[in-house]
Amino acid sequence: MKFTTQFLVPFFLALAPSALAASPSDLQAQIGHHIIFSYPGVEPPAHLLDLIKEGKVGGLILFGENVDDNLVTTIDNLQAVYKQSPYYSGSPLFIMTDQEGGEVRRLAGGPVESAKDIGQAANPKAAATQMGKDAASTLEKFKNNVNLAPVLDVYREAGDFADAYERSFSNSSRVVATCGSAFIAAQQSANIVASAKHFPGLGAAKAGENTDMQPVTIDLTLEELRKVDMEPYKNAIAAGVDMVMTSWAIYPALDPTYPSGLSKTIIQNELRDRLGFKGVTITDAIEAGSLTAFGDQATRGLLAAQAGVDLLLAAKRDVTQGEDIYNALLAALQDGSLDGDAFSAATQRILEVRKKLVLA
């Protein structure tokens, strides 16, 4: 009897291992891709270097306290440590920061103008294009490859949360969509990953309603959320945005229980299914004060992963925070409380974006 490959495909598919069946070392490396670490001061601690060697780190977020004249050398050394690891994936670690423009800049350089300045320009699209180029130039200079920008929040009132530091392009959804997509296209054409935030939108948060500090509820109708706050994400996705950061606010019209970054309904039903986003999702800072009702920080990381968020942002400047999240994911994959196939699909999304950095 003559066999052909078409008869063997189902057999091999049946044998294909899921994340749960992977060897311990494979599983270790897979989990590591999902966690963004942070550290205090300008000198990365030795323990962080050990974790990078062990394949437990997917990237790093930088804050002002991490920046000095030796930053480029520091990042080169971190990437070299990872490249020498047996768990090296063939692509560099994500090195990310908030280089939004205006007052929100971690690195010396552009964009100098705020998002609001850009939205009020005579030609907002052209101004936002230049803004994206300026951001990319600064990030490239300091060996960063991901910008946690642009902000796509549509502010409602002057001085409210999104407008207080002029982080929002406009109170017009159309202007935000135009500026955000232009920024994304310009920055990513220069090989710097963009991350649109904070899905589905923090524009209706009032002054002082900061999810970093306290629980925040955005009590808008589903119609308004979709027509105003989520509308700019259509343009961002059409522009090819690689990453979307979720909000930590609660949106009762979508999910009365869980904040966006812990809500499978919002991430899967709205962002992925309805809007068609196929890139990488990332949480806001896991240590946020808005999450006090959702357990310790490792538990929050696990809840976010179970909801379908790909990257978990451990931004406390404490290496053990990321390590604790890693251990929670490992235990959940081993006991089946975190779906192995869904987690593997998330890993693949992360690696697809990281491949772009190799080409760059």
UniProtKB/TrEMBL annotation:
Record bears the keyword ATP-binding: no
Record-level Gene Ontology MF annotations: hydrolase activity, hydrolyzing O-glycosyl compounds
Signal peptide: 1-21
Residue ranges annotated for the Glycoside hydrolase family 3 N-terminal domain, each copy included: 46-353
Keyword terms: Carbohydrate metabolism, Glycoprotein, Glycosidase, Hydrolase, Signal
GO terms of biological process kind: carbohydrate metabolic process; peptidoglycan turnover
Similarity annotation: Belongs to the glycosyl hydrolase 3 family.
Protein name: Glycoside hydrolase family 3 N-terminal domain-containing protein
